[in-house]
Amino acid sequence: MINNLKVYGVNRILTFSLIILFFVSLNNYLYFIISSLFFLFILIYFDLLKNLTNLNIKLFKLFPILFYIQQLISIFVNQNKSIFWDMQLFVFELNCQTQWNLHYTYKFTRETIECTSLGFGPFSKYIFGPFSRLYEVTLDPWNTSLIIFLVLFIIFTYLVLNKISNDLLFLNLLILFPPFLFLFETLNPDLIFLYFFLLLIRNIKSLDNNLYLFFLTVLTLFKIYTIAILFGELVYKFSNNQRSLKIFLVFLLNFAILFWYYTSLNLEIPNPISKVNTFGLLHDLNLLRSININYYILFLILLFTSLILLFSLRKRIYPLLFKSPTENWNKNDIYLTILFLFLLLFINYYSNYGYKFSLNILIFLVIAKYLKKRSLAFMLFVFSMIPIQYFVGTTLENNLSELVFFTFNKIAYYGYLFFILLLTFNIFQNRIK
C-alpha cells in the first residue's frame, strides 16, 4: 500500500514536471535543455521509467510532436528567419544542374542565392555526387521542401508514438536536443539517411535485401558516408569467417563510382569549419592550425598521449561504463554495433555540421541496454552540447559564459570520441582472440 502511494506520488510529480518542461521549451531553449538534463538524470538514477502511468507515457510520446509543431508554427507566424534552408538549397542546386542562370530567395528572408555564385556555369562542377549528372528536373525549392517535410514528419510521428519502448522513453526528450533541432530546422537530407538506417535496427537482415542495397547505392550517389555501412558489413563477415560476394561487389561498385567521381572532376569533400555549429576531429585540427601552429602541435601530442592511455587502460575503463562484456551481448546487437561504429567513426572524425551528430543516436539505440547509469547520463550530456549555436549564437564573443559552453562542447565531443574508440577496441579484441 505504501509503495503504491509512493509510485502514485512520483508519477504525479513526473506529470507536473513534463508539463513544466514543455512550457519552458516554449520560452527559453537553453533553460529547457538544462532542465531536461536534470530531469532525465533523476529518471535514470532512480529508475522512474519502470512504473509510469498511461498519462505519463502519453505525455512523453506527445512531447516531441508538440514541441516541433510549436517550433514550426512560431517560424511561420513570425517569419523572422528561414527554415528548411538546407533542403531549399539542395533542391535549388540540383535545379542549377539543368539551368545555371537561376536565382532564388530563401523563404521568410531576403537572402538571395544564384547558381553562378554557387559555382555553376558553362563549365561548372557537379556538387551533389554522381546523381547530379542524371538530374534533369526543375522543382520549386520551397514547395518541394514542404512536401518532403510533411512525409518525414508523418514518419517521425509514427515512430515516436509506436516504436519507442517505455524503458527508452527518455529518447523522446533526447530527440529535442541541439543536433536534432538543427536537423529539423535545416531539413538536411541526412534526416532521410537516418530513417533509412533505422530500418537496419528494425530488420537486421536488410542488407541481404537487394532492394535495400539498391537504395543504399542510390544514397551513396548523394553522400559518401553511406559506404561505411557496407564496409562495416564486410568487416563483420570477415571477423566471423564468413564471405559475401554480393556485399563485396556492391561495396566495390560504390567505391569505384565515388573514386571516379571525385578524382575525374578533381573535387574535394566539403569541410565546414565553425566554432559553434560544427564538430569533428579533422575540423578541430584545421581550426587549430589556422589559429596557431604551436597549438596544433600541442594538441596532436595530447591526442596521441590520450589514445595511448586509453588503449593501455581499456580493460579497467570498460567495466566502469558497461554492464557486461561485449562477448555476452546479443549477437544481433554486436552486428548492428559494428555496422554503426564504422559509420560513426567516419562521421565523427571528419568535419561536419552539428545536425550530422544526430546520426550517433543509431549506436545509442543499440547499446543503451548495456550502458551503466553514468554512461547513459554522459550520453545525454553529449547530445546536449553538440552543437552549441543555440546557447551562444552564431559567433563566439569570448565572454565567460560562452567559453564555458565551448569547453563543455569539447569535453562532450572528445569524451564521446574516446567512448566509441573504447567500444571498438573491446569488440574487435574479443573477436580476434
Look at the structure and give the mean pLDDT. 88
- Give the percentage of residues in beta strands: under 5%
The rounded distance between the terminal residues' Cα atoms is 53 Å
Total number of helices = 19
Radius of gyration: 23 Å
Largest sheet report: 2 strands, antiparallel
Q: How many beta strands in the DSSP annotation?
A: 4
Structural class: mainly alpha
Helix content: 55-70%
Uncertain segments are none
Give the strand order of the largest sheet, numbering strands 1, 2, ... along the chain: 1-2
Order of helices and strands: HHHHEEHHHHHHHEHHHHEHHHH
Shape: globular
Key terms:
single chain; globular; 19 helices; 433 residues
Describe this structure in words.
With 433 residues, the protein is mainly alpha-helical. It has a domain of 81 residues. The chain is built from 19 helices and 4 strands. A two-stranded antiparallel ribbon has the order 1-2. Helix 1 packs parallel to helix 3, helix 10 packs antiparallel against helix 11 and helix 10 packs across helix 15. The N and C termini lie far apart (53 Å). The mean pLDDT is 88.
Please write out the topology.
Layout: H1 2-27, H2 29-45, H3 54-78, H4 85-96, E1 103-105, E2 112-114, H5 141-162, H6 171-174, H7 178-186, H8 190-202, H9 210-220, H10 227-239, H11 245-264, E3 278-279, H12 281-291, H13 293-312, H14 314-321, H15 331-349, E4 352-353, H16 361-367, H17 373-385, H18 389-392, H19 400-432
Antiparallel strand pairs: 1-2, 3-4
Helix pairs in contact: 1-2, 1-3, 2-17, 3-5, 4-5, 10-11, 10-15, 12-13, 14-19, 15-16, 15-19, 17-19
